[in-house]
DNA sequence: CTGAAAGCGCTAACAC
DNA sequence: GTGTTAGCGCTTTCAG
């Protein structure tokens, strides 16, 4: 079976030299054609670009990076994949990074293996590192700063005052939920916690509890969280609902916890939602909109957050270090059917 | 506020030269220390390695790649993020790729934007490209072959006979499901389809239908699928269950479809599962084990498939092109509570 | 406006 | 076993 396209010898890509030779120009002239601000005759540039696309030449960013000190690589570090929020986010983020001409190098942080992964990533000299992982602590940003790579923490506070962060206004979101539930006549509020060391968990709780206190509704009880997962939601709900004074409304630190909590409440406790128990989540992942959950939640303005991240990242690669260190985007309450309508 | 660690001037990383100077050796000697099979005095190597970790030197893989023709980058292309199978997979795959000393460059394929993303990826000269996307067709593998980069299709047939593929034995899985359902006494079987052009969809259907025919159970009816998503499962189930002779068992082309189908069957049709309707999925995603679904399904041997992919990839980077073009790993039936026990 | 030459950080011949 | 040299593909002075 013969094949039209024959396999080229491994990696014998067309280079500037080839292009220069075929055009009878010098390599430097050819190179200039790819920079908008380079001095080159418009007509020459046109000839180069035409020929380039003809023979399939693209400048090699690795070689280019060696000299320009810019790899156009954005390192993205993830870890908490049990939370469906992250895959959705990662996809959008990657798309947008590609759209501005950068590429994503993905690292999965494995706390057990040391954070070797981060170091390998850094050896590729990414122009910027974005950390999506809740687990990675300050030593990650130390490692980056040591080699002069700016770090953006996404959906998480910066580990220190040298890093940048982009988050939803989690405290505000928590307060919105408190208002919704108190307005709905609930008095026995509970908070179903995720990872206690996650800033999202802390801020959502704080906003929630403060608003409750401010409205003289006392301090909600809270589960002792361990992770942001379905299983934790299930477990935490059983714990909270098993107490003597059963809560009549649960604010869950995020949607996947809420989903687990709903399953526990309906299956194991035989409760009707929202009649016996109101449930509110945070994030607005796709699952929250599924008919079987139809979860009231606080929507993170993901698109805005990503746009903000991209702006920040692009600015940082250009050396504008003086940007605001912490972006905080307001979230929006999405009322579905796991809460009673406001009176 | 003064800070102990001061930010280095952007990208002024320590290089071989620095290391060589500090050790009073030549750069080549230093370089050799990082290759196990290089000729160098063991004691010299030790000194180099020690000093290197002391001053935080790591060879720059970009510069290295320029000369060795190996970037140690593995390109991973994804698209179908609505299927939770992929995030779980991507994480594990990335971990394993990191474990063998490669790094993942992630591309999200956006059919609308042309497949520019793939070309940008290729400009980084990845040693290998792994395609997780169901959508990407043969032109992707053409583009890769044109530049001499081997392609592995994961969970999908190769688009042509030059590419490699790693899949579950989908036809076998379909047959296992047919046996389970027929043994359970079901006679009105239905197939809830995903993307019709996906090889997984086709193979699972084929294995299922053939086994039914072989056991004289006729040809199951099938929905007309469009995607692998919750919504499609919901919609497809309503369509199949609305027919005159309602099926008493549904084989869904994957788990996320099955989950959507269960919600439709229980909520909209008031059916009990498995009493009124048996449901079987495919993949064994985490959600399949959740108490509210507890889905009988065919487990893809993901770990084996990944191990096979890594072996293949590593072999290919070493130039062993003669490996088996299509790996097919057998899946395993996981019986949970959406099917009646076998008599 | 274009070309020649130097050099980014690294490895691979080739001498010694 | 080690140092010297050349060069990967590219950009960037510096002349012309």
Overview of the molecule:
Two copies of one chain form a homodimer. The longest helix of chain A is centred in the middle third of the chain and has 16 residues, at 199-214. In chain A, 41% of the residues lie in helices and 15% in strands. In chain A, helix 5 (85-99) crosses helix 12 (302-317), helix 8 (170-183) crosses helix 9 and helix 10 crosses helix 11 (255-268). By secondary structure, the first copy, chain A, is an alpha/beta fold. Chain A has helices at 16-23, 27-32, 42-55, 61-68, 85-99, 116-123, 138-146, 170-183, 199-214, 230-241, 255-268, 302-317, and strands at 73-78, 103-108, 128-131, 151-154, 164-168, 189-192, 221-222, 249-252, 278-283, 296-299, 326-329, 332-334. Chain A is built from twelve helices and twelve strands. In chain A, the strands form two sheets. Chain A has a six-stranded parallel sheet, with helices on both faces. The radius of gyration of chain A is 26 Å and the shape is elongated. Strand 2 of chain A pairs antiparallel with strand 2 (103-108) of chain B, so a sheet runs across the interface. The structure holds a DNA duplex (16 and 16 nucleotides).
Can you describe this structure in just a few lines?
The structure is a homodimer of 343-residue chains. Chain A is α/β, with parallel strands linked by helices. The first copy, chain A, has helices at residues 16-23, 27-32, 42-55, 61-68, 85-99, 116-123, 138-146, 170-183, 199-214, 230-241, 255-268, 302-317, and strands at residues 73-78, 103-108, 128-131, 151-154, 164-168, 189-192, 221-222, 249-252, 278-283, 296-299, 326-329, 332-334.
């Amino acid at each position: 079976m013969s094949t039209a396209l024959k396999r080229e010898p491994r990696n014998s890509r067309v280079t500037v030299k080839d292009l220069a030779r075929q055009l009878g120009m010098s390599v430097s002239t050819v190179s200039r054609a790819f920079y908008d601000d380079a001095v080159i005759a418009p007509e020459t540039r046109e000839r180069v670009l035409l020929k380039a696309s003809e023979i399939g030449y693209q400048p090699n960013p690795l070689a280019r990076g060696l000299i320009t000190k810019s790899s156009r690589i954005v390192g993205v570090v993830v870890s908490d994949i049990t939370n469906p929020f992250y895959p959705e986010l990662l996809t959008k983020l990657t798309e947008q990074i590609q759209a501005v001409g950068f590429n994503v190098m993905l690292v999965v942080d494995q706390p057990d293996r040391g954070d070797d992964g981060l170091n390998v990533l850094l050896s590729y000299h990414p122009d910027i590192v974005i950390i999506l992982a809740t687990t990675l602590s300050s030593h990650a940003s130390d490692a980056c700063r040591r080699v002069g790579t700016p770090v953006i923490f996404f959906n998480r506070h910066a580990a220190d005052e040298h890093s940048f962060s982009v988050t939803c206004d989690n405290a505000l979101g928590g307060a919105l939920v408190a208002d919704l539930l108190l307005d709905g006549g609930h008095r026995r509020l509970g908070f179903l916690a995720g990872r206690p060391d996650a800033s999202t968990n802390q801020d959502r709780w704080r906003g929630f509890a403060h608003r409750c206190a401010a409205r003289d509704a006392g301090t909600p009880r809270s589960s002792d969280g361990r992770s942001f997962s379905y299983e934790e939601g299930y477990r935490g709900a059983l714990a909270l609902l098993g107490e003597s004074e059963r809560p009549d409304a649960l604010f869950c630190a995020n949607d996947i916890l809420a989903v687990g909590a709903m399953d526990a409440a309906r299956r194991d406790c035989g409760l009707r939602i929202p009649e016996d128990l109101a449930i509110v989540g945070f994030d607005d992942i796709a699952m929250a909109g599924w008919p079987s959950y139809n979860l009231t939640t606080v929507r993170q303005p993901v698109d805005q957050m990503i746009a903000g991240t991209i702006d920040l990242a692009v600015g940082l690669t250009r050396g504008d270090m003086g940007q605001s260190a912490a972006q905080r985007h307001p979230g929006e309450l999405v009322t579905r059917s796991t809460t009673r309508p406001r009176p």
